[in-house]
Amino acid sequence: MRSAVVLLSGGLDSYTAAAIVRAQGYRLFALTIRYGQRHVHELESARAVAVALAVARHVELDVDLSIFGGSSLTTDTPVPKDRPIDPTEIPSTYVPARNTVFLALSLAWAETLGAEDLVIGVNAVDYSGYPDCRPEFLAAFERLASLATAQGVKGGACRIHAPLLTLTKAEIIRKGLELGLDYGLTHSCYDPEPNGGPCNRCDSCALRAAGFAAAGVPDPLLLR
């Protein structure tokens, strides 16, 4: 059985991406990053999702990007709400170089495991315009990995699995439901209410709501 390191945020997308790769026969090692994000609810969801996926090991790693600032997810800058989403614009919720940092950390762990496969739940269709969610970025990182690791120098390959890359949010949700996923375990909101409930106004909440509506199924988070 091949092993794969999956970046697990606790969100809908990373859960689905991990489940797809697991269904392909991979043994999963889950990596969750505490990067100084403004709330802990997604970390709690990541733990629940890791259990649901029966991962071989779940590591929570501290890499505090809030020290640098530069994002409304790691500072007190207000999260944009009640706005039309324009994927040609980079919003303030973009965390500078986050996916580059995260993939580098997952690559380091994968090399110690003897694994060649990384899993990330990025999407370039229904998304908020982040530059590190594009296929060009993933292809470039694979090339970098072949040069930057002992495994690569010896002829090994780094494969990045991004099974959601070209799917709509509705297609992602339908795929997850086919795999029996419980989306009530997940958390998507950028700026949740004090009780942890979604704000239903930020970009991430808007994309999630539109996805469930287009899929024709209710969001289990809203049924609680």
Describe the structure in your own words:
The protein is of the alpha/beta class and 224 residues long. It has a single domain, classed as HUPs (Rossmann fold). 37% of the residues lie in helices and 11% in strands. It is built from 7 helices and 5 strands. The protein has helices at residues 12-23, 41-53, 98-113, 135-148, 150-153, 169-178, 203-215; strands at 3-7, 27-34, 57-62, 117-119, 159-161. It has a 5-stranded parallel sheet with strand order 3-2-1-4-5, sandwiched between helices. Helix 1 (12-23) packs across helix 6 and helix 6 packs across helix 7 (203-215). It starts with a strand and ends in a 9-residue tail after the last helix. 40% of the residues are buried. The mean pLDDT is 95.
Structural key phrases:
globular, alpha/beta, 5 strands, 224 residues, five-stranded parallel sheet, Rossmann fold, single chain
Query: Helical element count?
Result: 7
Query: What would you give as the CATH superfamily?
Result: HUPs
Radius of gyration: 17 Å
Question: Which descriptor suits the 3D outline?
Answer: globular
SSE topology sketch:
Blueprint lengths: L2 E5 L4 H12 L3 E8 L6 H13 L3 E6 L35 H16 L3 E3 L15 H14 L1 H4 L5 E3 L7 H10 L24 H13 L9
Parallel strand pairs: 1-2, 1-4, 2-3, 4-5
Concise synopsis of the structure shown:
The chain is of the alpha/beta class and 224 residues long. The protein has helices spanning 12-23, 41-53, 98-113, 135-148, 150-153, 169-178, 203-215; strands spanning 3-7, 27-34, 57-62, 117-119, 159-161. The chain has a single domain (3-216), classed as HUPs (Rossmann fold, 3-Layer(aba) Sandwich).
